[in-house]
Specification:
The protein is mostly beta strands. 7% of the residues lie in helices and 45% in strands. The protein has four helices and 28 strands. Strands 1, 2, 3, 22, 23, 24 and 25 form a seven-stranded antiparallel sheet that branches. It has a five-stranded mixed sheet with strand order 9-13-12-11-10, with no helix packed on it. The longest helix is centred in the last third of the chain and has 9 residues.
Length: 406
């Protein structure tokens, strides 16, 4: 069943603060979650009535299937120039190519001009960014953030390069080769110009990143999972830690290694707050203070969280999947299975009260798509505040859905 709606702000749900780590991932979800007391989304009678009336705030959704918008794991919206950027993969590649980190292939950065009238031939003026000839290597992308630095649009992307051989006497074999690639975009030509490649032992299993508003500091999740290879998508214990890297110097170091089990999503807002989400259903908020990670707050709900994004009002857009088994099946065969998703928006409550139970975050249901009717296997959602549109994409989907509030 697909239900699209936006709760009235006067009748919103509240997200309760998180109070501890829950060590569970997708294939353990059903076994344990029903018996655990997790930080969760609370709902009053008025809230449930608002959800039932949500059809009055419906969304009209259209799906755009296009080779350039296949397998888009990360999206970023440029509010100034009204372009949506996505790191995407070609799902038509043979499975052995998708699984082998040492096979040379290139992911791409796709662009949608979101205010262009959809044409019959090329909806939203879709195109792919070029990469300058002086970039050495291929792109196998697994994380994206971007900021306007002065008059430049700069991209930071996690890249899984082919493994390198270790030939010293103490250690023989292959060494995984994960890097952060930094590009400036020539917007006139649509070309990514290489600025720096960051490589470090503190990037041993990066799966996501976020950059502070001025572009100096990069926080990276390392989770011991792999995007490619024989262990892609498999349970690996849940451990994760955060590293911070400096754009200018390229130096990286670990900043936290506790409490990040199954960390998956990461985003930063305009105030320099960093949000880290986990498939256990928790979101933790931090800021960097003198190079150290400072805890600010946390909240959670009783559904597994995938990727998160932030809109122009600094509200989070959270993609959840009610059935992790469906997403697991979709990851193993993007051609067939479809996983449902539920999209929420969250905003910090504005209150003068000092009481802890008056703090927290309000949650608003945006779209409930439990059967994947609106967008097969959504893993990321982006909200355009200006036009009240949602863009839904998925790592295991062959396109993107554009939903307009009615």
């Amino acid at each position: 069943m697909a239900r699209a709606g936006l709760q009235r702000r006067g009748q919103s749900s509240r997200l309760v603060r998180g109070t501890g780590a829950v060590l569970i991932f997708a294939i353990l979800y059903r076994i344990f979650f029903q018996g655990l007391s997790l930080p969760r989304l609370t709902s009053s009678s008025a809230d449930r009535e608002a959800e039932q009336e949500a059809s009055g705030f419906s969304w009209s959704c259209t799906r755009l299937e296009h080779p350039l918008m296949e397998g888009c794991e990360h999206l970023w919206l440029d509010e100034k120039n009204r372009r949506l950027y996505g790191t995407c993969s070609n799902l038509s590649r043979p499975e052995d190519t998708l699984n082998d980190v040492n096979v040379s292939h290139r992911d791409h950065v796709s662009v949608m001009e979101i205010d262009s009238p959809p044409g019959q031939y090329n909806a939203y003026n879709l195109y792919q960014l070029d990469i300058a000839d002086d970039f050495d290597g291929e792109l196998n992308l697994h994380g994206l953030d971007a900021h306007r630095i002065g008059d430049r649009l700069r991209f930071w992307m996690i890249n899984y390069r082919p493994s390198t051989m270790i030939t010293n006497e103490e250690e023989l074999g292959e060494k995984l080769n994960y890097t952060i690639e930094i590009f400036d975009l020539d917007e006139d030509t649509g070309t990514l110009l290489p600025v720096k490649t960051i490589s470090s032992d503190a990037l041993d299993s990066p799966n996501n990143l976020a950059v502070d508003p001025i572009g100096d500091e990069i926080i990276v999740i390392n989770d011991y999972f792999t995007k490619v290879g024989s262990f892609r998508g498999k349970l690996a214990g849940g451990e994760a830690y955060l590293s911070v890297c400096m754009t200018e110097s390229g130096e990286c170091r670990m900043v936290a290694n506790n409490g990040f089990e199954f960390a998956n999503g990461m985003v930063s807002d305009s105030q320099g707050r960093f949000y880290v989400s986990a498939t256990t259903g928790t979101v933790v908020i931090y800021e960097l203070e003198h190079g150290q990670l400072k805890f600010l707050d946390s909240f959670g709900q009783q559904m597994a969280i995938d990727r998160i994004s932030v809109n122009a009002e600094d509200n989070l857009v959270i993609t959840t999947f009610p059935d992790p088994f469906e997403l697991q099946k979709a990851s193993s065969n993007p051609q067939e299975p479809v996983a449902g998703a539920i999209i929420f928006s969250t905003a910090r409550q504005k209150t003068d009260s000092r009481e802890s139970d008056e703090q927290g975050y309000e949650a608003y249901l945006l779209i409930e798509d439990e059967d994947g009717e609106l967008m097969p296997s959504t893993t990321i959602a982006v909200h355009d505040v200006k036009t009240e549109r949602l863009f839904l994409a998925g790592k295991f989907s062959r396109g993107i859905s554009i939903c307009t509030r009615q």
